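Feature request, filed as a ticket because there's no other form

It would be nice if the structure record came with a short human-readable summary line next to the tokens. Right now we just get the raw output. Example of a typical job, pasted below so the devs can see what we mean:
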Amino acid sequence: MSQNTGEPIDSHDENGEQQEQSGRTARSFSSKPLISTEAAGQHAAGAGAALPLSTPKSAVSSGAKKPSVPRARRMRLSLTRVDPWSITKVSFLLAIAGAIIQIVAMALIWLLLNSIGLFDNVTQLLSKTGLDAGGFDFSSVLSLSTVLSAVTIFSIFEVVLVVVLATIVAFLYNIVSSLVGGVHVTLGDD
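Raw output as currently delivered:
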């Protein structure tokens, strides 16, 4: 840390170096003087430009150099194996989310169709054409509870199917990647 001279320290710059008021010496955390503010003022007055307090002596005497920008690192990696159990868990949760979305979407669609009177109009159309076959009520067959029950049963089968297929694909990927080396991915550090 810096030496304790009993004088208040005003601020820290972005490099972690301490700056003090004019007439005092700015010190780094290693307690070595960087440049005194009086010397910086005299040197800057001679050069016609003001320099910040945190400018090292080497930068003042030799001119400020632009810091080099590090190049982005690139790594080429291969995905050679996936864990089938983790694929099973993730696919199960995604399939459950998809099932919930399907049920809610079907309920909203049914409410929209019912509000515009589609089911009543289809029932009236069937009765006028004589295809109602003895008082067939289209709206009672496609009630909200019937539609939601059918969509729920379909979603349960879909969840099971998605989980089984995803697990089988994970096992197949492991077999194929042992033969050809897996999927090659290039990652960049931006």
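Something like this underneath would help us a lot:
The chain has two domains: 11-62, 74-188.
The longest helix spans residues 144-180.
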